[in-house]
Amino acid sequence: MDDIIRAISEPSRREILRLVRHDELSAGQIASHFQVTRPAISQHLRVLKDAGLVTERREGTRRLYRARPEGLARVRAELEWMWDAGLAKLKEAAETEQERRQRGPMDDATTSGRR
Amino acid sequence: MEQEDSGTIEREIRVNAEPDTVFEFLTDPEKLVQWMGTTAELEPRPGGKFRLSYDGEHVARGEYMEIDRPRRVVLSWGWEGEGAATQPGASVVTFSLVADGNDTIVRMTHSGLVGDEIASHSAGWDMFLPNLVGAGSGAAPNA
After folding, report:
1. Rounded CA Rg of chain B
2. CB of B11 within 8 Å of any CB in chain A?
3. In A1-115, beta strands by DSSP E
4. Widest CA span of chain B, in angstroms?
5. I need a surface site. Which of A5, A53, A109, B9 has the fewest CB within 10 A?
6. In Å, how far from its chain's centre is CA B109?
7. Do the chains contact at B110 and A9, CB–CB below 8 Å?
8. B33 interfaces chain A, CB cutoff of 8 Å
9. What is the pLDDT of residue A7?
10. Is residue B123 within 8 Å of residue B93, measured between CB atoms?
């Protein structure tokens, strides 16, 4: 899940996604919404592109960007993965904790071979 | 991936533990990080903070909305950027815990991912853009 979450964990990149989710915009148009330098915006666009969240299209000397609908499906898949992995660990951790409680704290060091 | 309701993720697991044991894994920071994230700041009361960091890099942030020990925990969920003041998440995570013999059935629902505009791809971004979404703009859970 790393690259996709990293891509959207940065406020400027979230703002960029919002700008291009309905409209295809040039890098210059996008940069005009921000105080930061143009190279910084280009860097953000590269991260979003690498994460599959925007598409890039060249038109003459301009590069145009638009949010990629399939990116959403991937966001969802990453999120499902996060919950599946998490809940499996929750089950394991809670069952371990339950055993510990039933044994009682005093038995912790002397449980081997009992039962 | 089957086409279920694209605005909601639902999972159910059976845990061989009492509901109260499982409940603590949703509200105690030291226990929560045994199954997700690496550090947690939790205020388990309605309106209390829920902040979960993954290696300090990605931070899930929201608020506890309902706490009913040991049956139910509801919290809002979103992602925050580094240092960004983010409003509580636009999506909602619900855990319900039901005793079944010596087990607990844990039902997890993560809803509000695309609001009620299931067909619209763009609406789904709102989950990740909580600080940029105007109040009441489509991502509200309709559960």
Report:
1. 15
2. yes
3. 25-26, 54-59, 62-67
4. 46
5. A109
6. 8
7. no
8. no
9. 77
10. no
pLDDT in tens, B123-136: 344 444 433 333 33
- Phi–psi pair at B63, nearest 5 degrees: -135, 145
Enumerate the β-bridge partners of residue B111: B92
Q: What six digits make up the tokens of A77?
A: 């898949």
Distance from CA of B23 to the nearest CA of A (A): 9
Residues 6 or more apart whose Cβ sits within 8 Å of residue B2: none
Nearest-angstrom CA–CA distance, A21 and A6: 18
Is B75:B61 a contact under the CB 8 Å cutoff?
no
Specify the amino acid at residue B24: E
- Choose, out of A14, A22, A81, the residue to mutate when testing the contact with B (most B CBs < 10 Å): A14
DSSP lists the bridge partners of residue B11 as B108
B13 touches chain A (CB under 8 A): yes
Q: How far is A20 from chain B (nearest CA, A)?
A: 10
